[in-house]
Amino acid sequence: MAKALIALGAVLIVAGLAWPWLARLGLGRLPGDFVFRREGFVFYFPLTTSIVVSLVISLLIWLFRK
Question: How far apart are CA 29 and CA 4, in angstroms?
Fold first, then answer.
């Protein structure tokens, strides 16, 4: 369990550092990413981006297990 948590933390750090380059690819602004704006309040829900990232991670895990 400890190794899995360390690996997850490392992946999150790498994703955080790579976010400026990922944003240039359009992640975070895909159709289906919802932004609700009101006076003094912004709620951002990246539904499509979450699905794409989940599919990519699932594919990578599947490839590494083979």
Answer: 30
For residue 11, the tally of other CB atoms under 10 A from its CB is 12
Q: Bridge partners of 51?
A: none
Is residue 32 helix, strand or coil? Answer: coil
CB contact at 8 A, 34 and 47: yes
Model pLDDT for residues 49-62, shown as the tens digit of each residue: 889 889 988 998 88
As a whole number of angstroms, the distance between CA 49 and CA 15 comes to 13
Q: Give 13 or 27, the one with higher predicted confidence.
A: 13
The confidence score (pLDDT) of residue 35 equals 92
7-12 long-range contacts, CB within 8 A, separation 24+: none
